[in-house]
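Field guide to reading this record: the first block holds the primary sequence, the second block holds the structure written as discrete tokens, and the final block holds curator observations. Each block starts with its own label. This record concerns acylphosphatase, catalogued under organism Microbacterium saccharophilum.

BLOCK 1 — SEQUENCE
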Amino acid sequence: MRRVRVIVRGDVQGVGYRYTMRMVAQEAGVAGWVRNRRDGSVEAEVEGTPTQVDDVLAWMAEGPPGSRVDATEVTERAPTGDRGFEVRRDA
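BLOCK 2 — STRUCTURE
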């Protein structure tokens, strides 16, 4: 299993990024969470097989229609065994 923490920068708030990501994550079969940050970025943790995580990371680099992703910062984390994927309250 692989778990990553991702910070997404650009025009990613107010465009449905978190809710679309939840759908993408559920379809990919990954666990984790996503939330907005006060600085205008989106933060997420994603856990699954390396292929599942790579698929979600590829989507995150593009985002939903109406968004603009300028950069993604990916940090490897220790897997936690989470189940399900949730949209969390803003940080």
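BLOCK 3 — OBSERVATIONS
The first strand starts at residue 2 and ends at 11.
The chain is about 25% helix and 40% strand.
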